[in-house]
Amino acid sequence: MQHPLLLILVKVTIFSLMLAIGCNLSFEKMRSFWRKPALVFRALLAVVVLVPLVVILLLKLFNLPPEVMIGLALLAASPGAPLTTKRSQQAGGSFHYSASLQLTLAILAVFVTPITLAIFTALFASISPKVAILEVARQVIMVQLLPVSVGILMQKFAPTFTQQVAKPLTFIANSLFLVLVVLVCILGLPMFSKVGELPLVAIAIMVIASLGIGHALGRFDDDTRSTLAIFCIARNFGLALFIAILNHVQQQVIPTLVAYLILGAFVGVPYSIWNKRRLAGLTQEN
């Protein structure tokens, strides 16, 4: 997991996925999302506030090893995984809603991530890493904000060209995503047993509670409910790993990050299948 090629693959995958989102999402669709303050408020409340609050409660209730505490804090402080739009679509979620929320979280991560980590550091003495705020902001800008902005600008100034490259770009991004998932599973499975039973219970509770928060705060009348649920459990693994490397704690927290990735998929996939069938049933009834 220390190999620099893995970090390069993570950055390239994130960049390509975000560029694909920018090329496929119109600026007007994003503006329409931002014009719905109640929808935006519920989404940010669930992803940015309530999920970290769940983690704080878990760290207070469970006597977890410091490395597990740091790993969960990094995940709680890293919302808006670049792969989430794809995952929410697999759950039957709205592409425009999920992509708009993805961009909003990418922008806010510049502020949300260091502030959230500062709160965890103040509350728990075991969480010692200091956040390199400028490095975190630069990382978010380079691999998330920049490619999305480029994609949106391409739509505005070269719409014909963008329309031609959008599908191939999406295919390449999805292929890189698949390669990354397979590689992380191969490298991470041997580390899964190092986490311990109690930390695995805490991680499972975090995953299930996060999914429940998103499902409960999502709207009842459309497919944004499943999107918000997936966004709550899909933390930004790449950003969390990057911050861990900045603070030289990657070897200690990687087992926790991998365990969350596996348990998140274990819970998220059945939910996605169930929700997609639910939406299909509602469509047939109407």
UniProtKB/TrEMBL annotation:
Chief location bin: membrane
Chain ranges passing through the membrane: 6-27, 39-62, 105-127, 169-192, 198-216, 228-247, 253-274
GO cellular component: membrane
Membrane topology of this protein: Multi-pass membrane protein
Pfam families named among the record's database cross-references: SBF
Highest taxon of source: Bacteria
Subcellular location: Membrane
Keywords associated with the record: Membrane, Transmembrane, Transmembrane helix
PANTHER family membership: P3 PROTEIN-RELATED (PTHR10361:SF28), SODIUM-BILE ACID COTRANSPORTER (PTHR10361)
UniProt protein name: Putative sodium dependent transporter
